[in-house]
Structures are given as structure tokens and as C-alpha cells.
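Session log. Operator J.P. requested a structure for one protein chain; no other inputs attached. Running the standard single-chain path with C-alpha cell output.
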Amino acid sequence: MNRPLATNDVAVTPQDKPATGNVLTNDTDPNGGLLTVTTTPTTPPTKGTVTLTPTGVYVYTPTPGATGKDKFCYEVTNTAGLKDTACVSVDIVPNPTALNDNPIAVDDNTQTEKATPVVVNVKANDTDPDGNVLGTPTILTNPTNGTATVNSDGTLTYTPNGTFVGKDSVQYKVCDNGTPSKCDSAYVVIEVTEPVVGNKEPVAIDDAASTPINTPVSATVAANDSDPDNNTPLAFTKLTDPLSGTVVINNDGTYTYTPVTGFTGNVSFTYKVCDAGSPVKCDTATVSIAVLPLPLGVAMLPKVYLQGALFGVNNLNMLMRDDLRSKGLIPLNSPYPGMALAEATATPPTTQAVLNVTGANAIVDWVYLELRDPITNTTVRDSRSALVQRDGDIVDIDGVSPIVFNNVVAGNFYLVIKHRNHLGVMTATPVSMSLVPTTIDFRFPTTSTFNLDVFNITNSSQVLVHQGVAMWAGNVLFDNKVIYQGNSNDLNPIYQAINIPANVINS
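Structure written below.
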């Protein structure tokens, strides 16, 4: 009676999302009997918890906020009472941000006969959430019962010692070409067996992939599967479907997974690969797919003129005045939270070094920005403060970076810019925004802005200036309030003056 063979598994799951699967998918009993899983893991995970059933089903729940590698090990028993152990490597993928994320290196399993080298394409099931290119792997930990080398094509060759039979492993690292470069590591587990007479089973290795929400992903499971007898072509068929979404797997091993609209989380499906030998031999493996939520945040590069900072500036190429900065009157902290304008995206203070900058990038003042709902443009979806420079650029507190809103995902929004003594301005229609900065230039008359109809005429939301158009200088009623619409607003008196035929307006 032979012992069962438990094979390591892999799982990939987004941050704060459970991972589910079945550890028995790739475990076998040479005697053809049933296997039972001990419900208490032999090695528990350190970054979460796991539940196991006797039939092999597991649910791994990561600790809130945890990311990176974790592992738990389990024991299987056959009907004769013989046992074997294996482990499930879990990769908790951080929720994507504007920064470069770590690649996902997935453990590999392979087999070879005694004294026979085996080549493993370790990168075939490794992925990068940002789509960056993965470089050549490097070996971190050498095997104890053989040698391992990395080949010029990025594959790894393991050669067992002449008489060794059993399990050995190699740890490797793979890095992406992002900025900054990020790395991840994984293990290759090799089962070295006595020579087998006749056709041998092909070797199916687990795979992993990730895809953004609502986005199908296509890949191949064949890249890291092989047949020790080279009885090809290999034929691939689907065994089980994912619990959410659909998958189509072709005979050549290519597949397309389509997630359900709105779904995020971890799913998996199993497949079978069979060789062309006689008799035909088969093996099974699991594909784990992480459906990732859209990254929080949108970025933009707004530009605007303030009419008040252009009073007395009559040259087309002149910049806004920075009198407040030069007189030391700009506070390090935004004044808007103190004016009952809440910041959904909190704005830290700027620094004196930023306020010391002169020239075109000198700071004129703080401004306040809102992202509004694309359907109901009176509903604020996110808001924050920022700094406007003499040339009209609106920048973050470092005086350089684009503006980032942290509480929305990519989509369409109205953009509103406010200033404490100017009338606000808003885009005429929602604008598409993402983490790739969107430029919205309110300085040009050709940029469409939202208008109110006053006295049944179409008015302009900005005033003409020598440099283009600017936000109206406010507080026309001298009540220490700048109001665009509603009771006691500052807009009506402006247009009352504009609409008197005898008045002459010098722009």
C-alpha cells in the first residue's frame, strides 16, 4: 500500500477578500482510494484564518489590511491510514493605487525522475497587476538535494543529485520594470521519483491571473504544463466552473474568463490536461483569478485665473500678482475648512519652502476644488484644497504635483473651482477622469463652463481679461460673502450693470 501524494496549491486574493478552493484538486492516491483532509491545519496562516472541510474545501480570510505572502499547510489521509502533507501559498494582492504594485510570483510544482534534469518556466504563472514587464528571475535559496540554474530565456533548470528521490525546492525572485521596481518571490517544488515504465502522466501546474473589475482576462494554462515523455500535443478541457463569472477553455489551453458585472474578489476553476500517449494519461490543476476593484483616486491638472489677482495687469503675457505671498499673508494650512467647506480628501499643510518660490510658479493663494456627481451636479462626490500659481496652474501642496482626489474611482465628474473672494466656476458637462491626470484649462474662453440664466439671458460664468478669462472677483454687495446663486447673490448685480446699455465695460 502506497502513501497518498499531496501537492502544494496556490491562491491569489485581493486585499480584505476571502479566497476559496479545494486542496484535493491536485492530490492523488496511487491506490485509487478516497482522500480525507484533516480539518485542523498542520501549519496555520499568519496573516489570516482558514477553515478546512474533510472534503478539501477551504476558505482563507485575510486579516483586514494585510497584504503579501501567507501560507497554511494541511494533511491528507487515504483509506489505509497513510498520510502526506502539502501547503497552500496565498498571495494577498494590495488594492491598486497610483503607485507601482508588487508583481505576483506564484509557486510552481513539477516532477522528474531520479538523476534527470527538468526545466521549469517559472514566470509562466507570474503576473504584474500594473502590466509591467517581469525581468529574469534570480535564485534566492538553492535546493538541498540538487542544483538549480537560471537560463538565458528566464526558465529554471533543476538537476537532482544522482541517487536522490523525494521532494526538493528552489526559491526565486522576480522583479518588474516599474518605477520604483518591485519584486516578489515564490518556490518551485520538485517531486523526484524512481523511473516509471510506460507512459507517464503529464504535469499540470497551477496558474494565477488578475484583472480589473468588469474586464475579461485571456491567458493560457499550457505555458507551464509539460509531458515527461513528450507525448504531445497536450489536450486541455475544463473540469469545474468558477463560482462567479464564466470561463471558456480551448483545446490548446488558452482560456478567457469573463467576470460578472460589478464583481470583485477571488474565483478559481479547474482543468484537465491529457497527453497523446498510449494509454492516455492526464493531470489536473487550478487557475486562481483575482478580480480587482478600480483603484481609488482621480488626478487632474486644472488651470484658472483669478480676476482679483489680475487687476492692474494689462499685458497679455503678464502673470497674476502674488501680493499675498510676497507679504507673507498666505497661511500654511488651507483656510477653507474654517469656512465650513469640508475636505473629503484631507489636504495637509504646505511648507514655507513652497511659498518661497518666485516667478511663474509662485503661489497666488489657496483654492478649493469639488468633484460633483455627473447626474446631479449639486451633489459633491469629493473635495479638497490646492494651490494656484501665478501662471494659473493649480498644484498640490508640494507646489509641483497634480491634484489627486482619493475618495472616488475613475469616472465622469463636474469640476468646480472656488476661491474665498471670487465667484466659482464649473465645467459645463461631466469630464472623464482617472489616475492619469486630466488637464482642464478654465483660462481660455473656448473651455465650456456652466452658466446660469439671469433675466432670461445667457450670461458668462467668467470675466474677460487681457490674458483670457478669469473667475469673477466677488463680494459685490460688500457683505463679506461671495454667493454665486440664491438670495443676496453677487452675480445679479454684476449682470444688472452689464445689461444697462449706457454702461461701458473695459475688459
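Operator note: The mean pLDDT is 87.
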